[in-house]
Design goal:
The chain is mainly alpha-helical and 327 residues long. Helix content is 55%, strand content 7%. The strands form two sheets. The chain has a three-stranded parallel β-sheet with strand order 1-2-3. The chain is globular, with a radius of gyration of 20 Å. The structure holds tryptophanyl-5'AMP. Tryptophanyl-5'AMP (TYM) binds next to strand 1, helix 1 and helix 7.
Length: 327
């Protein structure tokens, strides 16, 4: 069975973007692939985190994975910091990467700009840890949103560089980006992506938002004044974003949606999108609340860490042997 690996940072309240771009597509592989889904808490500390909050969010995110439909009997769910091989292989990856290629990462450049004078060094090294996450499991496919494309490319580059220098150890992974959901945009500024860290609460739908809040946010989403419902990302980013969310949840194509809504107003489209989002998120929210109080969760994560480590340590050992590092 081919291996799938992906992870989400426990760094804020998850948005509909994280759900449609990542979490929802995690589900489609669980019956057909060997899946490892990780709460990447060591990625989150590339910017300062409150320790108590980080611990809480890490557990909450694990609960959310299950609430969204991942079955711990079928997939391996675990917390990154419980498998030290991630950081160990991460160090090896920093020795393979070039400063120039790390400086060119767009996410690094954006985050560095926001950090001002004192840029945490981990922000630059971050992709090397992500590379290690993926390579440790010999993953063939990595389900992520469009914003992670460059990080998947550097993963391929470093895996190839390692294999070329030290011999074939790593599988070269590919990105899997879901149609429609790969880049959910801000509801208030539809030319930038919906983000956990947006200061404007109306810009993002959070997975914890109550039904009426979801409806309100979608009703107030930015559109345009020409009144026509069709997908045109360039000229109609707001309407196109609503259509993408619709498509990701209803399975309709953009052409079908344009036909469905011919002659209708934005109000109708918004009401339907709100219904779809509410219908999708409500059961997840309810299951999530039950799971948080359940003692099962810790056991699932302990088992997950043990299973993940068995796989990760085998790969790490191979990498060390290939490089001449004693283990
Ligand atoms: P993170 O935590 O920022 O986001 C988690 C996932 O959500 C996707 N995503 C989106 N998809 C569509 N529209 C959006 N607006 C949107 N916002 C976020 C992201 O693409 C991602 O798939 N570096 C990663 C975490 C990571 C990882 C890994 C992922 C660490 N190691 C190994 C895969 C494999 C990150 O910061 O994602």
């Amino acid at each position: 069975m081919d291996v799938i690996f992906s992870g989400i940072q426990p760094s804020g309240n998850l948005t509909l973007g994280n759900y449609l771009g990542a979490l929802k597509s995690f589900l489609r592989f669980q019956d057909t692939h060997e899946c490892y889904y990780c709460v990447v808490n060591q990625h989150a500390i590339t910017v300062p985190q409150d320790p108590k909050e980080l611990r809480r969010r890490t557990t909450e995110l694990a609960a959310l994975y299950i609430a969204a439909g991942l079955d711990p009997e079928k997939v391996t769910l675990f917390v990154q910091s419980e498998v030290p091989e991630h950081v160990q292989l991460g160090w090896i990856m920093t020795t393979l990467a070039y400063v120039g290629e790390m400086e060119r990462m767009t996410q690094y450049k954006d985050k560095a700009k926001k950090a001002g004078e004192s840029i945490p060094y981990g922000l630059m090294a971050y992709p090397c840890l992500m590379v290690a996450d993926i390579l440790l499991y010999q993953a063939k496919l990595v389900p992520v949103g469009e914003d992670q494309r460059q990080h998947i490319e550097i993963t391929r580059t470093l895996a190839e560089r390692f294999n070329y220098r030290y011999g074939e150890v790593f599988t070269i992974p590919e990105m899997f980006a879901p149609e429609g959901g790969a880049r959910v945009m801000s509801l208030q500024n539809p030319t930038s992506k919906m983000s956990k860290s947006d200061d404007n609460q109306m810009a993002s739908i959070y997975l914890g938002d109550e039904d009426d809040m979801i409806v309100k946010k979608i009703k107030r989403a930015q559109t345009d004044s020409d009144g026509e419902i069709r997908y045109d990302k360039e000229n109609k980013p707001g309407v196109s974003n609503l259509l993408s969310i619709h498509a990701a949840l209803s399975g309709r194509t953009f052409d079908q949606l344009a036909a469905d809504y011919a002659g209708q107003g934005y109000g109708t489209l918004k009401a339907d999108v709100a219904d779809l989002v509410v219908g999708e998120l409500r059961p997840i929210r309810e299951r999530y609340r039950e799971l948080l109080d359940s003692p099962e969760l810790q056991r699932i994560l302990d088992d997950g860490a043990a299973k993940a480590q068995a796989k990760a340590s085998a790969t790490y050992r191979k990498a060390c042997e290939a490089m001449g590092l004693q283990r």
